[in-house]
């Protein structure tokens, strides 16, 4: 049985709030409710924006559980489940399936630099180990390797491979072009590595602290000023 999806619209990549170095469950659950109230079509916990590399496996699982429980079926949840270890990615995928997530987002294995055949076997193993839809996350800027169109085509023939999140394009360049043509478009959240800028913006709105885990650090003062200026431009603050 195939596990294709009918997802449509914009899915928010959620930050993972911290308080005194620990997960901030209250702030996270409030973010889920706020995003749904603001009209998001779906939620993506523990992805890049959720600082998944610095979460323990236990923390990773708890964030997914909180997201599914708080969403209460109001919008789909695509849980981050990627790892450069195939066994770990399978464990994350099975956990997401067991706690009721609607799909998983699995990044191409970083650091290892697998071949195209290695990429295929990695995702095929995940496909074979669970029945939840799998979204391939292809982001060469972070994972080094780039999945080829041929490999993606092979994978899409498998039952549970349901789509791709393509992060190969230069989004900032598009933003700059739109701004140059006279339509205001905010690129300030790309001035430093994500999610530090978006966490700072959320802290300005009173949604969570701007705390990030090392090796990520809080924004420089110059960047904070740029983010605030962009928020004023967007009408989020005065």
Q: How much beta, percentage-wise? A: 5-15%
The appropriate CATH architecture of the largest domain is: Alpha-Beta Barrel
Could you name the ranges where pLDDT drops below 50 across 5 or more consecutive residues? Answer: none
Largest sheet: 4 strands, parallel
How many helices? The count is: 9
What overall form do the CA principal axes indicate? globular
- Examine the coordinates and then state which fold CATH places here, giving the name of the CATH topology of the largest domain: TIM Barrel
Order of helices and strands: EEEHEHEHEHEHHEHHH
| Rounded mean pLDDT score | 92
CATH class of the largest domain: Alpha Beta
Distance between the termini: 52 Å
How many structural domains?
Answer: 2
Question: What is the CATH homologous superfamily assignment of the largest domain?
Answer: Aldolase class I
Summarize the amount of helix as a percent range.
40-55%
C-alpha Rg, in Å? 18 Å
Strand order of the largest sheet: 5-6-7-8
The overall strand count is: 8
Structural class call reads alpha/beta
Describe this entry's structure for a reader.
By secondary structure, this protein is α/β, with parallel strands linked by helices. The chain has helices at residues 25-37, 57-71, 86-98, 116-129, 140-143, 149-156, 171-180, 196-204, 221-233; strands at 11-13, 18-19, 22-23, 42-44, 78-80, 103-107, 134-138, 161-166.
Main features:
single chain, 238 residues, alpha/beta, TIM Barrel, 2 domains, four-stranded parallel β-sheet, two-stranded parallel sheet, 9 helices, 42% helix, globular
